[in-house]
Amino acid sequence: MNRPHARNSLGKVFVNELFSALEQLRSDEKVRVVVFKSEVKGVFCAGADLKERAKMDDAEVGHFVKRLRNLMDEIAALPVPTIAAIDGYALGGGLELALACDLRVAASSAKMGLIETTRGLLPGAGGTQRLPRCVGIGLAKELIFTGRQIDGQQAFSMGLVNHTVPQNNEGDAAYQRALTLAKEILPQAPFAVKMGKLAINRGMEVDIASGMAIEGMCYAQNIPTRDRQEGMAAFREKRPPQFIGR
């Protein structure tokens, strides 16, 4: 993300560009992991572009917020693992974007918060639904009701991020840790990883019995794959597997 004059805030053009990028990622079978990062030092994403929002009438606001919600849903629905590298401020819609990712890594100095209530708003791009799944209902309510900002270490303690790291001189410590995490995922069987993500995401939406059925269906799709056969053969032959995503 590289909108320095607006601190990567989510304006109409920027959102359209993100939708286009997601479409390209979905259609590229070579993509194995997606890392969301900022090219603007000190900020991940400052949230919605409120200067642009102030020029909208009520109907336009409703339509745009719905589009933001759709954007976050598209990020969450990417078939491959996604990682948010939070090296600076992730506020409002910026944190909601990170919440739409599968994994989050933050610099200890990063600042995060669903600050909408401090602006007379409430989270409208999925934050009220995704934050409780990370930190629990009680903490999610406290963070949303107060609009409080927390740092990377606090976010890690709450379970909001998977990893926190000290910031470096270049200001990209979270990105570097996210790359390391991505490289841990890359050697694994691509189709199995995709099915694992699908089983978790869909299973969270239903009761445990239905979730087990979803897991069974995902597992059944993986059984005839060449990668599963390769994994078994590599185990027998005591060598590293060579997965091809088929």
UniProtKB/TrEMBL annotation:
It is found in: Mitochondrion. Transmembrane segments: none annotated. Its main location: mitochondrion. One of its GO terms (biological process) is fatty acid beta-oxidation. The keyword DNA-binding does not apply. Keywords: Acetylation, Lyase, Mitochondrion, Transit peptide. Gene3D superfamilies: 2-enoyl-CoA Hydratase, Chain A, domain 1, Lyase 2-enoyl-coa Hydratase, Chain A, domain 2. Signal peptide: none annotated. PROSITE patterns: ENOYL_COA_HYDRATASE. InterPro entries: ClpP/crotonase-like_dom_sf (IPR029045), Enoyl-CoA_hyd/isom_CS (IPR018376), Enoyl-CoA_hydra/iso (IPR001753), Enoyl-CoA_hydra_C (IPR014748). One of its GO terms (cellular component) is mitochondrion. One of its GO terms (molecular function) is enoyl-CoA hydratase activity. Belongs to the enoyl-CoA hydratase/isomerase family. PANTHER family: ENOYL-COA HYDRATASE DOMAIN-CONTAINING PROTEIN 2, MITOCHONDRIAL, ENOYL-COA HYDRATASE-RELATED. This is Enoyl-CoA hydratase domain containing 2. The lineage of its organism: Eukaryota, Metazoa, Chordata, Craniata, Vertebrata.
